[in-house]
Design goal:
The structure is a single chain. It contains 6 helices and 8 strands; from the N terminus they run αβαβααββαβββαβ. It is an alpha/beta fold. It has 2 domains: 26 residues; 146 residues, 2-Layer Sandwich (Alpha-Beta Plaits).
């Protein structure tokens, strides 16, 4: 009986570890080791904040980085950028890779000056990643602020529109929605 209880306890501990590993895999981006798209959207829907800031970041000319320097360099750019950003973002923020070369930051307030300062900092950090002597990484950023009566879909749409505005205006900049 004692051996059965001990065996059952070990099995339960193994199951718990397996469940924790699976949960982490479901919510973490495999390459960058930051939150993934699923976790990001679940988090925003769970907090149901009246107001927040959404920042969408896209690496400029990422396809050409992969084509010119190789996918291993592209992967290194993604992991390095993710690590650098994760180190400067506040614990209150949620930082995730949405997919490909696109990242997002959830900021739990709607302070416009903070969003501008953070966007400028994120732009500068990206430029520290050197591809070769003549070329550094750049990003474009779209920022939107959630109004109290606005849906998540509307906030995302406006952030995407701001991102495309930044790209259309020459890249390596941010745009506010």
């Amino acid at each position: 009986m004692l051996l059965t209880c001990y065996g059952l306890k070990l099995t339960m501990a193994d199951l718990k570890r397996t469940q924790q590993c699976l949960s982490k895999e479901l919510t973490t981006d495999y390459l960058t080791k930051i939150a993934n798209r699923r976790f990001f959207y679940q988090h925003i829907q769970q907090v149901q904040a009246q107001r927040f800031t959404l920042i969408i970041i896209d690496i400029d000319f990422f396809k050409s980085i992969n084509d010119e320097f190789g996918h291993d360099v592209g992967d290194k750019v993604l992991t390095e950028l993710a690590a650098l950003y994760a180190n400067v973002l506040s614990q209150d923020c949620v930082f995730a890779r949405l997919g490909g070369e696109e990242f997002a930051v959830y900021v739990p307030d709607d302070n416009q000056q903070y969003a501008i300062d953070l966007s400028q900092q994120l732009l500068a950090i990206a430029r520290t990643i050197e591809l070769n002597k003549q070329r550094n990484v750049t990003v474009s950023i779209g920022v939107s602020f959630k109004a109290a009566d606005e849906s998540l879909a509307e906030v995302l749409k406006r952030a995407d529109q701001a991102l495309y505005k930044a790209k259309n205006n020459g890249r390596n900049q941010y745009s506010l929605a």
